[in-house]
DNA sequence: TCCGCATTCTTAGAGATGTAAGAATAATTG
DNA sequence: CAATTATTCTTACATCTCTAAGAATGCGGA
């Protein structure tokens, strides 16, 4: 989440040196800028950016299970678990199990969680309005279409080039060295 | 970093329910999909996605200080510090102080770090090629222009609506409750 | 010149997210 | 029906990034 002055610097970077394939980088920067803009606004309502995505799903589909929530949010279950736990502590949602199934945990909005909707949605709309200010609707539509196409193109990736495994190669595998080292460093000065 | 099957589900979501202002969400998903595609390829060379951005900067400007690196990467200094430490441990870079200044720490690529360039750049180009497959150059250009405009629009944000402070309102401030709780939970079952 | 402020690096710790693995429960099938 | 398999939640731990604060160093004005 870069700060405003750094955004300026990033902008400068984009205006000056835009070689060739930097589209991916641009997308990343734009995503971060938007996330930051929204987060600043959400914080005034004591909602973190992480919770926003889950709240938004629940406003549309209250009572989903945690795994359904995970799928819709596009994150793994531990992420959802942590977020739901935090939101429950903040009184925004409640876990409940329905009779007949002791495995599934359904997540329900509390009145407080539901009430946030009318406050938070306008903030997202404001950020959107600011973002696309001065951009024609046609260009926004094109951008949307291109991003969708990219998502489509990349969704097939991962199955991939046949010449190697390349199937979610367990992040650890090779980062084990630095991991261990960091851990060692941390533990060498505990209390 | 969602998995391929989840990407499918995300895609479906975008094709079916695309209400109004979801552009921000789309940008986020696209950024994640691209990051993931690149990361999978980088891992085969023992490079994490986090290191990639720093390496790329150093290939263009070897010997920057850590704070210069931070500015160019658009991240805070602790992030850079951690990444440089990890990369140093992996033998990709070396910290060095120039005589005349004992404060600034310059970061230099090792031969190993430099050699990665010719291996890694093609991977990024491949991801880019896959991403924009089937999209016209004109549409890509439009997308680039729109994203740049968005970045521009959002860069001014943060100074903001005059009716409230809204100046990087210290992420902690309100998330203090859940934070404490998590900490408590973690410490209640240590060794 | 020297003192105070600014810069730079570093440390501490929180939060989001991921992978891996465990436990409980449901579903399926021989 | 019982045993195996799959699903769901949970825990553990790693990584990346941030904010906050400390320490060392450099710099500029009284």
Lay out the secondary structure:
The structure is a homodimer of 191-residue chains.
Chain A: H1 4-16, H2 23-43, H3 49-60, H4 66-73, H5 77-89, E1 93-96, E2 106-109, H6 111-131, H7 137-155, H8 172-187
Antiparallel strand pairs in A: 1-2
Helix pairs in contact in A: 2-6, 4-5
Chain A binds a DNA duplex (30 and 30 nucleotides) through residues 1, 48-50, 65-67, 75-79, 81-83, 86, 101-105, 168, 170-172, 175, 178-179, 182-183, 189.
Major sheet characteristics of chain A: 2 strands, antiparallel
Multimeric state: homodimer
CATH superfamily of the domain at 48-127 in chain A: Winged helix-like DNA-binding domain superfamily/Winged helix DNA-binding domain
Q: Average pLDDT across residues of chain A? A: 77
Largest interface: A-B, 85 and 85 residues
What CATH architecture label of the domain at 48-127 in chain A applies? Orthogonal Bundle
Question: Can you tell me about this structure?
Answer:
The structure is a homodimer. With about 190 residues, chain A is mainly alpha-helical. Among the domains of chain A are: about 1-45, no CATH class; about 50-125, Arc Repressor Mutant, subunit A, CATH 1.10.10.10. Chain A has helices at about 5-15, 25-45, 50-60, 65-75, 75-90, 110-130, 135-155, 170-185; strands at about 95, 105-110. In chain A, strands 1-2 form a two-stranded antiparallel sheet. The longest helix of chain A is centred in the first third of the chain and has 21 residues, at about 25-45. Chain A is globular and about 50 Å long. The model of chain A is unreliable at about 15-20 and about 160-190 (pLDDT under 50). Chains A and B meet through α1, α2, α5, α6 and α7 of A and α1, α2, α6, α7 and α8 of B. Chain A binds a DNA duplex (30 and 30 nucleotides) through α5 and α8.
């Amino acid at each position: 989440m870069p700060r405003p002055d750094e955004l300026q610097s990033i902008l400068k970077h984009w205006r000056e040196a835009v070689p060739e394939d930097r589209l991916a980088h641009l997308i990343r920067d734009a995503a971060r800028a938007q996330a930051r803009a929204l987060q600043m606004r959400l914080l005034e309502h004591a909602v973190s950016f992480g919770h926003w995505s889950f709240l938004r799903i629940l406003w549309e589909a209250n009572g989903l299970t945690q795994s359904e929530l995970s799928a819709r949010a596009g994150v793994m279950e531990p992420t959802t678990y942590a977020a739901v736990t935090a939101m429950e502590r903040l009184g925004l949602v409640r876990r409940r199990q329905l009779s007949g199934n002791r495995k599934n945990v359904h997540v329900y909005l509390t009145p407080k969680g539901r009430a946030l909707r009318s406050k938070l949605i306008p903030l997202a709309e404001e950020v959107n309005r600011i973002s696309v200010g001065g951009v024609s609707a046609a260009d926004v539509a094109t951008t949307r279409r291109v991003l969708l196409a990219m998502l489509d193109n990349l969704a097939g990736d991962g199955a991939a080039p046949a010449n190697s495994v390349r199937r979610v190669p367990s992040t650890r595998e090779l980062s084990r060295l630095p991991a261990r080292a960091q851990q060692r460093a941390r533990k060498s000065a505990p209390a």
